[in-house]
Amino acid sequence: MSFGQVLPERSEGVEHDPDPIALLRRAILGKRVALLTGAGVSTDSGIPDYRSPGRPPRRPIQHQEFVASDAWRRRYWARSVVGWPRFRTAAPSAVHRAIAALEGRVELTALVTQNVDRLHQQAGSQRVIELHGALAEVRCLGCGAFEDRDALQARLVSLNPRLGRLSDEDAVDFETRPDGDVELSGEAIERFVVAGCLACGGVLMPNVVFFGGSVPRPIVEASYAAVEAADVLLVLGTSLTVFSGFRFVKRAHERGIPVAIVNRGPTRGDPLATHRVDAGLAEILPALVG
Questions:
Q1: How far is it, in rounded angstroms, from Cα 265 to Cα 288?
Q2: DSSP-derived secondary structure for 133-170
Q3: What are the residues whose beta carbons fall under 8 Å from the beta carbon of 16, sequence distance 6 or more?
Q4: Is 205 helix (H, G, I), strand (E, B) or coil?
Q5: Half-sphere exposure of 57 (CA within 13 A, CB side)
Q6: pTM score > 0.85 for this model?
Q7: What does the alpha-carbon distance between residue 184 and residue 24 come to, in Å, rounded to a whole number?
């Protein structure tokens, strides 16, 4: 059975093998492993990514747009109130379960994920660092208070009953987007009423790092520590296009820590990888832990 292409390894003397499963097992089993995961892990759960080969371009919301503009916040929350019910009911796939099973096969320093869906935790992964936060929480930009996203959903539906009816999956067939929202008409967005913070009336933002935002320093440092404590960094399902995740591949390379990447399509980290498998995760991960 073919599991995809094993691309050339970086260093002289590193073992080559046409079987990617055997190659990855040699790379990680019996080792201390740091995991870095991206959107490709969750595509089989119905949450699309931004950059898979063949996907149409998707423009993510920018941090500064959300913070600076009432119109952009109204756009985000209108689209999110329709998309949230489907996003929150996404279930872990065989890939998430295989990654959770991997914790029992290797000494895991941490699972650093760029995803905001908490499907790793639902699948049973324990040592998860949420690099970009999670959509299940909302925070106030004024007073810092947190609110559960489901609780906010109820308030938004109450303020916008027409869109609340559209949030029922049986009523409408919208495609979920990577940010957990959906496409809506300009008219629906213009009429949308945004809810404020319950504590101070301030601006609410999902507790995630939008594009252009900064990952909190303690999260970055904890992730660096996990990489530096590992014998190998295993990267799964990310193109590493943004520096937020790529920095950990750079750190591993600088410290002489081998980097194994499994992703369909090229990644920014390929020149730094010691092992590179070009294949879908559903082809590789269950077989790796099976």
A1: 20
A2: EEEEEEEETTT--EEEHHHHHHHHHHH-HHHHHHTSTT
A3: 6, 8, 9, 23
A4: strand
A5: 1
A6: yes
A7: 43
Q: Is 13-47+92-133+214-289's fold the same as 63-90+135-208's?
A: no
Topology of 13-47+92-133+214-289 in CATH? Rossmann fold (3.40.50)
Q: Which residues are catalytic?
A: 132
State residue 163's pLDDT score. 81
Distance in angstroms (rounded) separating the CA atoms of residues 62 and 44: 25
pLDDT in tens, 246-276: 999 999 999 999 999 999 999 999 999 999 9
Distances (CA, A) of 10 to 23, 141, 246, 279: 14, 45, 17, 18
The pLDDT score that the predictor gives to residue 18 is: 72
Low-confidence ranges of the chain (pLDDT < 50): 1-16, 169-172
CATH ID of 63-90+135-208, from 1.10.1660, 1.10.287, 3.30.70, 3.30.1600: 3.30.1600
DSSP state of 127: S
Burial 77-98 (b: 16+ CB within 10 A, else e): bbbbbbbbbbbeebebbebbbb
Which DSSP category does 272 fall into?
Answer: G
**Inter-residue contact 160 to 78 (CB < 8 Å):** yes
SS3 203: coil
Per-residue pLDDT at 190: 87
Taking each helix axis from N to C terminus, what angle separates 94-102 and 281-289, rounded to the nearest 10 degrees? 40
What does each C-alpha distance from 171 to 71, 88, 162, 174 come to in angstroms? Answer: 26, 17, 12, 10
**Integer Cα distance of 135 and 137 in angstroms:** 5
Q: Which two tokens stand for residue 137?
A: 């929480």
Domain boundaries, the chain: 13-47+92-133+214-289, 63-90+135-208
Is residue 220 within 8 A of residue 245, CB to CB? The reply is: no
